[in-house]
Amino acid sequence: MNEATAGVRKVWDDQANSWYEQRESLLADSRPVHEWLVKNVAPKQGQRVLEIAAGPGDTGFLAAPLLGNGRLVSTDIAPAMVEAARKRGGELGIHNVDYRVLDAQAMDLDDASFDGAICRWGYMLMPDPAAAFRETRRVLKPGGRLAFAVFTTPAENPWVSIPVGVLREAGHLPPAASLSQEWQPGILALADRARLHALVDAAGFTSTTFELISMAWRFANSDAYWAWLEEVTALGPVFRALPGAARDAVRASIDARVAAFTGSGGLALPAQCWGVSLTRPSL
């Protein structure tokens, strides 16, 4: 495992307990994404479905009952996330599932061994998404389907573009990479449709469908949002590393900018994803 991948693994190991603790609210807010993925991978009785970067596993757990005597294989690069999914699956009474620690960029899985694959918000955070797409195609059977989601543009995702913008303005994050620069993984790294299309085409997928999926992250107040940014998102390590004064300044700027999204029910921050459905060509 290279240094970049090891770094990703550490981030999500550190966040796993928070994902598990906030599992109900995370699922409630993001349910449109989960449901789109399950609908488009179209699981059937007796099939074998792979969930990549599963986190606490909820997308796969929506698919598992549709598999009947088939199997779900729930995977994540972070061992603590795999344990969170195992615990969540036990709570839900999901029995037709296997759990594995797995790097999607180099999967220890047989060729053509799955009927379908699901990945919610995983490929954009991988140091080598091109390798991950090739590996996903390899483990799918001919005619097998991949359904995945990644976030779209900064303007459509103020929940993340606001804190990222504040951090960049304060010099706590580097400037955004242009499309001509070296790949940098991140929450919005696959927002550009042309770049994303090129990646899946190069991996050898066909029957590509793109759809926009809208949702919103909801919080009781700015304190809850700030805690969520620290504990659940990929920005958490950046926030936790800030010294006191810098942290206070960043927090104040973020609070001021998200105030426009505050109503009687608290904060409601829009989010939008690309839902992408692909097929491995038949032989």
- What's the CATH first level? Alpha Beta
- Overall spatial form: globular
- Model regions low in confidence, pLDDT < 50 over at least 5 residues: none
CATH architecture: 3-Layer(aba) Sandwich
The helical percent reads: 40-55%
The number of distinct helices, counting runs of at least 4 residues, comes to 10
> What is the residue-averaged pLDDT?
95
Number of extended strands: 8
Number of separate structural domains: 1
Question: Radius of gyration, rounded?
Answer: 18 Å
* CATH third-level topology: Rossmann fold
- Taken as a percent bin, the fraction of beta residues is 15-25%
Annotate the secondary structure layout.
Layout: H1 3-21, H2 23-41, E1 48-52, H3 58-67, E2 71-76, H4 79-92, E3 97-101, E4 114-120, H5 129-139, E5 140-151, H6 158-169, H7 193-203, E6 206-219, H8 222-231, H9 236-241, H10 244-258, E7 262-263, E8 266-279
Parallel strand pairs: 1-2, 1-4, 2-3, 4-5
Antiparallel strand pairs: 5-8, 6-8, 7-8
Helix pairs in contact: 1-4, 2-3, 5-7, 6-10
Which properties best describe this structure?
Rossmann fold; 10 helices; alpha/beta; eight-stranded mixed sheet; 283 residues; globular
Q: If you had to describe this structure to a student in words, what would you say it looks like?
A:
The protein is of the alpha/beta class and 283 residues long. It has one domain: Rossmann fold, CATH 3.40.50.150. It is 45% helix and 23% strand. The chain has ten helices and eight strands. Strands 1, 2, 3, 4, 5, 6, 7 and 8 form an eight-stranded mixed β-sheet that branches. Strand 2, helix 4 and strand 3 form a beta-alpha-beta unit. The longest helix has 19 residues. The protein is globular, with a radius of gyration of 18 Å. The protein starts with a helix and ends with a strand.
